[in-house]
Design goal:
Length: 410
């Protein structure tokens, strides 16, 4: 009877209740949406690279090394000699190593020189390996494997020829147009910088620069592709390399030995630790989004309190009638509290349902355009905590209207 009375009381004022319900629903939608997307984006960000024990580059800052080796942002301070890479990668604790050579681009997308180990050992997410949507890894010097976004945005397919540009500018006039590459593979979408990369062999990188010096093509030196096949195209240096170890126990020992390498200054970082440091730098943005969503909820709760408070003045006769039939003042107090909780619970159900439908409908678009893997499952420990706090805040917001009704009923 108590619950039925609260529902009928709300239905008698359905106009104002509906507006309050809409405001609360929007605030719940924003609060849950911000928290869920924040958590999912953080997880997606942390899963950019998986299964890599160490990333090694020239001695620089930890974040800088992570940015240019994993996210293709920025540029290295220096390169690593090929001899150092071979010595370190042949160590007894090293299971595999993936060399990375950066410096060229194609229409704003980064070109990565690497080996077949990249497709064998590089993984993302929960140790998910790279898979081919079409084609296969590069075999020939002038083969190129495209990330999903590159192939999709530029409408490339297998067999197409593309020309790489010297440097990483979106618009470049230094083109390697005398040695085009042929598309032999297209990777499945990963939601990581792999989607925005072109992958060629280290020999391919050496081949297009063999008659270049300091970023300029040497005039009068023309080496044919047939002549290139007779030349040993061994790289002199690389930008960085990723390392997988035989045992995780050896991670810190190998890291220390690389950082103390005497032949050239090197830096080895743990990608998980570096990713955590990078995310901490964005804590201000996280907190700002949370603050905005909390303020939206606070405004809705104030609106709920104002609606209940104004309704008390119109319900003198209803309250007196309840007193006549024997309802104590505390019953009236709890009735107003229950009405507020009913509105809040309905708002949570509506807000959560709308958010679920929105995420389910735009999930593929977020992955496709922004590389964000956002799950439609909004139920998590953090969301349950937030919803519990919303219900507690609703009780506090309804205290003043409930107390006014209590005083009238005395």
């Amino acid at each position: 009877m108590f619950f039925k009375l609260a529902i009928e009381s709300l239905l008698s004022r359905k106009g104002s209740v509906l507006m309050t319900l809409m405001a609360m629903t929007v605030s719940i939608f924003v609060l849950l949406g911000v928290e869920h997307i924040r958590q999912e984006a953080k997880e997606s960000f942390s899963n950019t690279v998986s299964g890599v024990d160490l990333i090694v580059g020239a001695r620089t800052g930890t974040i800088n090394l992570l940015l240019y080796s994993v996210f293709r942002v920025g540029a290295p301070t220096n390169n690593i000699s090929w001899a150092s890479f071979q010595e370190i990668s042949s160590g007894k604790n090293v299971k595999w190593a993936i060399p990375i050579s950066l410096g060229d681009s194609h229409k704003g997308y980064r070109v990565i020189g690497t080996t077949e180990n990249y497709f064998k050992h590089f993984s993302y997410g929960n140790k998910t390996p790279l898979r081919f949507l079409d084609g296969k890894p590069f075999k020939d010097i002038f083969d190129v494997v495209l990330g999903f976004e590159v192939a999709n945005k530029l409408n490339y397919k297998l067999g197409d020829e593309i020309v790489l540009a010297h440097g990483i500018a979106r618009t470049s006039f230094s083109l390697h147009d005398d040695r085009p590459f042929t598309v032999v593979g297209i990777l499945e979408p990963t939601g990581t910088p792999v989607d925005q990369s072109l992958h060629v062999s280290l020999e391919g990188i050496e081949a297009i620069h063999i008659d270049w010096e300091q970023g300029v093509k040497i005039k009068g030196l023309n080496i044919t592709n047939d002549q290139l096949k007779q030349i040993e195209l061994k790289p002199k240096s690389i930008t960085a390399f990723m390392v997988g170890l035989n045992s995780r126990i050896a991670t810190f020992r190998v890291q220390r030995s690389i950082n103390q390498y005497t032949k050239e200054p090197l830096l080895a970082i743990l990608p998980g630790v570096a990713l955590s440091q990078l995310w901490q730098m964005m804590a201000v943005l996280e907190n700002t989004l949370r603050l905005v969503s909390v303020l939206v909820l606070l405004a809705a709760l104030l609106g709920l309190s104002a609606m209940l408070l104004s309704s008390i003045r119109e319900r003198d006769r209803e309250i007196q009638l309840l007193r006549v039939i024997g309802a104590p003042p505390f019953f009236i107090f709890m009735l107003i509290q229950l009405e507020a909780l009913v509105i809040s619970i309905l708002s949570i159900i509506l807000g959560g349902s709308i958010l679920f439908c929105c995420l389910a409908s735009v999930r593929e678009l977020l992955t496709y355009h922004f590389g964000l893997h956002i799950s439609a499952n909004i139920i998590s420990n953090s969301s349950l905590v937030f919803l519990s706090l919303v219900l507690i805040a609703t009780i506090f917001a309804a205290v003043i209207p409930s107390f006014n009704a209590y005083k009238i009923a005395r």
